[in-house]
Amino acid sequence: MKYNGIITPMLTPFNHKGEIDYSSIDTLVKYLKSIGVSGIFPSSSTGLFPFLSTNERKKMLERVLENSGSIKVFAGIGAADTDSSINLAKHARDVGANGVVLMPSYYITSSQEWIINHFEKVLKAVDIDLIIYNNPKTTGTNIELKTLEHLKSNYSQVLGIKDSTGDMRYFERLLFLKDSNFSVFQGEDDLMFISLMIGADGGVCAISNFSEDVVNLYNSYTSDDLEKTRTLQKRINGMMDILLLSNFPAMFYYAFYRKFNIKGGYRDPMVRPSKKVAEKILDFIKVV
Amino acid sequence: MKYNGIITPMLTPFNHKGEIDYSSIDTLVKYLKSIGVSGIFPSSSTGLFPFLSTNERKKMLERVLENSGSIKVFAGIGAADTDSSINLAKHARDVGANGVVLMPSYYITSSQEWIINHFEKVLKAVDIDLIIYNNPKTTGTNIELKTLEHLKSNYSQVLGIKDSTGDMRYFERLLFLKDSNFSVFQGEDDLMFISLMIGADGGVCAISNFSEDVVNLYNSYTSDDLEKTRTLQKRINGMMDILLLSNFPAMFYYAFYRKFNIKGGYRDPMVRPSKKVAEKILDFIKVV
Amino acid sequence: MKYNGIITPMLTPFNHKGEIDYSSIDTLVKYLKSIGVSGIFPSSSTGLFPFLSTNERKKMLERVLENSGSIKVFAGIGAADTDSSINLAKHARDVGANGVVLMPSYYITSSQEWIINHFEKVLKAVDIDLIIYNNPKTTGTNIELKTLEHLKSNYSQVLGIKDSTGDMRYFERLLFLKDSNFSVFQGEDDLMFISLMIGADGGVCAISNFSEDVVNLYNSYTSDDLEKTRTLQKRINGMMDILLLSNFPAMFYYAFYRKFNIKGGYRDPMVRPSKKVAEKILDFIKVV
Amino acid sequence: MKYNGIITPMLTPFNHKGEIDYSSIDTLVKYLKSIGVSGIFPSSSTGLFPFLSTNERKKMLERVLENSGSIKVFAGIGAADTDSSINLAKHARDVGANGVVLMPSYYITSSQEWIINHFEKVLKAVDIDLIIYNNPKTTGTNIELKTLEHLKSNYSQVLGIKDSTGDMRYFERLLFLKDSNFSVFQGEDDLMFISLMIGADGGVCAISNFSEDVVNLYNSYTSDDLEKTRTLQKRINGMMDILLLSNFPAMFYYAFYRKFNIKGGYRDPMVRPSKKVAEKILDFIKVV
How close, in Å, is residue D252 to chain C by CA atoms? Predict the structure, then answer.
């Protein structure tokens, strides 16, 4: 199996009490199908998975699968301890997810040895497609190339990587690992143009939770319309600059709620964006 | 209430299956009483609290309280989401802990606004002494002085801070906040001598899980034996250099297991230290 | 004037006493002409310009100009204080250099205000084409986009930028400034493929001091042979990995001396590469 | 010889054309004698030595020596290349300086091997007391403890270190090297209290260019008046917070010029502080 295109690291809609708003998940999934993303990734970082209970994560995955149709569903199975990830992986397999996404443990910084132990225990316990997720900003550690090569060459389930380092030097070296069974995804929305130009298979782009720009960017690229690709990238960069004025990922939630007229909430300790900053995003929402 | 002395950020003993070994908790608590620490802090970073379930954390706290006697018990209530911390704080209060220790949310980096929201929701929900824990290495964010001053001046329950930044410039400014109801603890074992010399109330020192050196250092300082204080600091520094040759906190577990002849284990993804590195710690264990 | 292609940040050949070896400059210039670089940049970082006296720098520039033929010559005029840069710029203009390359002051970290002052004083004093050089690793400061835009829009002499940040997010934004009078050069040899793919005009590549690989890479790209471009990038990456095993830029000197059988030296405090590391480069030299 | 007390890293007074104002050097030296510093260090970082020509540095040193009386004079001999440092060291010896201060090469980051080469070449060439200056913020590299121990144990001229890392973990380890022939100086004004409390011999404090607070702090400490020491440190911290609102070291120049009613200037690219920021320093100047 070879994956590509734009995968949405799905946010987790909350109501004003901070509880998961399952009906808004349906709204989001319906929207994602309409704009043509290739995959949905619940329990992502944007989805604030560490703020959710295991039961909430399982229930959310099931809800996504009810409506996902032909879109691939990749269940986030990240956890600080390995057993929790195995538990989530088994559930994902049992309920029919297409694959899972796993990052190294967090809070306590992992060595490469810990990373290998973490991934191998999950890979040996559950037979399901797995995408490796590298994000040093949240885990405090980088997955070194030799660690990645080890996992890729020893486990045929390992089908790709989502890289959120923002380091194109590293990303280029990832592309040298790309083959017919291993996909390389860019995890930073503002690096999509560069990444596609040098051979990325696609992106895991948070902005697709409420904007089709990045899907259009991907389609422009595959249609060889580089000028349009570049123009869309510029617009996305402008949007990202504004979204990150409030602490990640609050602004993505605000934009989603406003676009779909949802009276949503923010699970603590996430705080809703200030009015001043929030106003700046409204122009983009209208354009979309 | 004014706290001081050495508080032990308790490790969580595991058996070879990676399950919590409750009887070894008794061994550890008995040891800590014998060497004269002033407090015990279960569900600490050394205790790998993000690897534990809520039930495990509650049961462990109860087990500590059964044997703690006159030693103060500070329950770690850290969690990525605020509600989980509130839940743990209520339990700590109900089972009779002396206080709780709370750090900012993690994985997703908190802004100062998120930090204030996180702490205030907990402080308003539960009336129990609270020590603020600042550790940018694990949470990705520093608690700024004005955030700290806000919490300290508005909530009389806030009785101290454990600082693990390793930044003495910041630590000195913390000491300017010290008063009869607010204690400042150093969280880095190798900075105890400096910290006490400029007025720290004590330390939260992982090394006390298996060594009385740091308790002796504290007692030497309060007895005005600066030469002995300095000598002990040098020995502790040497020990720390070795302990951190393996990924934190594996070596602390190894040292504890060896000192008490426990056949302990390592919850995944933590990996036991390599033999080569482990051998280096044995001399210190014998000396202790 | 619009510049492009590969510019060589020329190393400064030394003899065994650490004096400049002017005849080896001729050897190097002759080689650079033979492989087809578009420009030569004496008094570069690779050329260790801060280790050279003003007189040495002037004499070296004159020597280069004697043999450079149709290749463009860009004189490095970097200095900690602005007046020294003005002095060097006037000399460069007077002896017929095509342009100059200037970076912010160093040792003391510059603010954006200092950067603007530094560049404006030089630009107002001397009328000659100027390429801005951004290298936070050596100057401790990044030239912000708005600083760059200010200089570019107010001074028509500003004809390009050499970016050595290694940050492609920044580099992509530089490319949005590219126009018919402003060229964007990549300063990191291992990022040439990516940079050309997204529109860079060329590179300032230290490896061209002894290898034609990067010139071939550029030519492959302009001939639309992307497969060859990528293959050459992979080889260059391998070479860079080895070159940087010794402290920059000693290995570039070693490679140059060996390739041309020069009994060269290393001005203090630069130290010649260890034998063990040096041996690794010999295979590459032979291949070239 | 054993050095201690407060050494002034002397600023270089300029006139409005940016030329050195030698008569204001006399004013400064006279002031430093009056407040009781133990040493003067011309060609310091505060003195912007990389902005000065070799001749200016020599002439300035000679001018300082004319008026220094019993105060020790330590000539800064920092340079990017080793030969320039040797040249300056010989001059310092010949004109009767008490010692020299040397840091690693800069702009190009030095390895430990380069550092050792740099210092050894100077130490072998000139017999004069030498203080090692460690400042990774300006040189890009840290002098490792084993490098320092190597230099200290092999060269009896090496009589001390000025540490500007701001890292007290490192500083404490320096103090373990202190002996009757090796002094440890703190280079950060706001860390003087901590440093003296754990055994520092003194400080190299830029604030003494226009304020006697830090001399008073030192004297309070040696008189065992810890409360006054702490109070002075707090005031110094407040002053430093303001001084560093403009790019180092412009505000030190402004404060000096205002205190002594000198119509001074700022050598390019240094820019004079903005009015808004400058006003904040005036209260401190009056207090002094």
Answer: 14
Which residue of chain C comes nearest to D112, CA vs CA?
A: C247
CB neighbour class for A187 (10 Å; exposed up to 12, middle 13-18, buried from 19) = buried
Q: Average pLDDT for residues C74-88, to the nearest whole number?
A: 98
Q: Is B107 an interface residue toward D (CB < 8 Å)?
A: no
Task: Tell me whether residue C133 is one of the annotated catalytic residues.
Answer: yes
Residues in contact with B7: Cβ distance below 8 Å, sequence separation at least 6, in sequence order: B37, B38, B39, B40, B41, B72, B74, B162, B185, B202, B203, B204, B205
**Residue C107 designated active-site:** yes
Quote the CA–CA distance of B268 and A86 in Å, as a whole number: 11
Contact B45 A121 (CB under 8 A): no
- Residues C75 and C41: their CA atoms lie apart, in Å, by 6
- Which chain B residues contact residue A270 at CB under 8 A? 108, 114
Please report the pLDDT score of residue C2 as a whole number.
Answer: 86
Please, are residues D247 and D12 in contact by the beta-carbon 8 Å criterion?
Answer: no
pLDDT of B285 reads 78
**pLDDT for A2:** 87
Spatial contact of B192 and B215, defined as CB atoms under 8 Å apart: no
For chains B and D, count residue pairs whose Cβ atoms are closer than 8 Å. Answer: 37
pLDDT in tens, C10-31: 999 999 999 999 999 999 999 9
**The residue type at B64:** V
Closest CA–CA distance from residue D199 to any residue of chain B (Å): 10
Dihedral sign for Cα atoms in the order D60, D65, D66, D70: positive
Identify the closest residue of chain B to A48 by CA–CA distance: B108
Check if B70 is active-site: no
- D265 CB-near residues (< 8 Å, 6+ apart): D14, D15, D16, D17, D18, D19, D21
pLDDT of B207 above 60: yes
A260 membership: H or E segment, kind and range: none
| CA proximity to A221, closest of A251, A238, A235, A201 | A201
Query: A67-77 pLDDT, tens per residue?
Result: 999 999 999 99
C142: tokens are: 């990044």
Question: Would strands B129-134 and D202-204 be described as parallel, antiparallel, or unpaired?
Answer: unpaired
In the structure encoding, which two tokens stand for residue A249, read together? 């990922």
Compute CA distances A80 → A139, A192, B49, D247, whole Å: 9, 29, 9, 42
The C-alpha atoms of residue D90 and residue A262 are separated, in whole angstroms, by 77
> Dihedral of CA D54/D59/D63/D68: which sign?
positive
For D:155-194, CB contacts with B below 8 A are 166, 168-169, 172-173, 176, 188, 190-191, 193-194
- The answer to whether the Cα torsion of A124, A127, A128, A129 is positive or negative is positive
Distance (Å) from the C-alpha of residue B226 to the closest C-alpha of chain A? Answer: 34
3-state secondary structure of D163: strand
**Which residue from C188, C190, C197 is facing A198, i.e. has the nearest CB?**
C197
Q: Give the pLDDT score at B2.
A: 87
D130-177: per-residue pLDDT in tens? 999 999 999 999 999 999 999 999 999 999 999 999 999 999 999 999
Q: Name residues whose C-beta falls within 8 Å of residue D114's C-beta, 6 or more positions apart in sequence.
A: C247, C269, C270, C271, D104, D105
Contacts of A237 in chain C (CB under 8 A): 173
Largest distance between two CA atoms of chain D: 51
pTM score of the predicted model: 0.95
pLDDT at B283 over 90: no
Chain centroid offset of residue B120 CA:
22
pLDDT for C287:
55
Q: Say which DSSP state B73 is in.
A: E
Q: Mean pLDDT over residues A153-180, rounded?
A: 96
Q: Residue D109 and residue B192: Cα distance in Å, rounded?
A: 33
Interface check for B54 against chain A (CB to CB < 8 A): the answer is no
- The answer to whether the CB of A272 falls within 8 A of the CB of A197 is no
Asked if pLDDT for residue A287 goes beyond 80, the answer is no
